[in-house]
Amino acid sequence: MSPRKSHVFVNGAIHFEAWRPLTNFDYEYSILAFDVGSDSFRRIMAPKNFSIPGTTQLFISGNGNSITLFQPCFTSTGEICLDIWEMKEYGIEESWTKLTTLSLPSPRRRVFYRPLWFGKSGDVVLVPITCLWEDDDRYELVSLDLVSKQLKNLGIQGYKYYYAESYVVSLVLLDKTDAVSY
To answer: How many Å apart are CA 9 and CA 92, to the nearest integer?
Structure first.
């Protein structure tokens, strides 16, 4: 899996985004989960009223217990926004809940944000993503508090690529299906 693509480890499975074309301009979006314990795949459908414009980028993130979808978008007035959806009960597709739509301030050009890291306290570190032809170091990492919906600049800027990975202590015995771990 590429670090530029979204994937997250939640509930014993690696989750990544998947697209299936339905027509020339319509796609079905879902999340594929590979369960490392049972060595099997399963599909989790996106929320029922989830819209996917053709040029929108989607990102998944997780806090270890739930899956969150981040979808950059535009408001009716043309401002950049970010739709945030969370699956409240893991594996229950009916539990998808739209947490919020945030209007995001951006410097003079249109800048979208993608999640870099999901903190235990409910904050999300967002990375600015610009058009490929733009080379601007003024965009900096921001922290988003999902409860207060406040953005805070972290003072980290000037880097072209950011990558973070969560570490979870676990033991999966691949050759033992009846193993008990503590």
So the answer is: 17
Task: Please give, one letter per residue, the 3-state secondary structure of 24-64.
Answer: CCCEEEEEEEEECCCCEEEEEECCCCCCCCCCCCCEEEECC
Contact 152, 142 (CB under 8 A): yes
Cβ 11 vs Cβ 90: under 8 Å: yes
Residues 6+ apart with CB under 8 A from 168: 9, 64
In this prediction, residue 180 has a pLDDT band, given cuts at 50, 70 and 90, of low
Phi, psi of 50 (to 5 degrees): -90, 120
Residue 72 has pLDDT above 60, yes or no: yes
Q: Measured between alpha carbons, how far is 80 from 104 in angstroms, rounded to an integer?
A: 6
> pLDDT (tens digit, 9 = 90+) per residue, 104-124?
665 545 667 777 777 777 788
Q: C-alpha dihedral over 83, 87, 88, 93, to 10 degrees?
A: 130
- Coil/strand/helix, residue 110: coil
Give the Cα separation of 7 and 69 in Å (integer).
Answer: 11
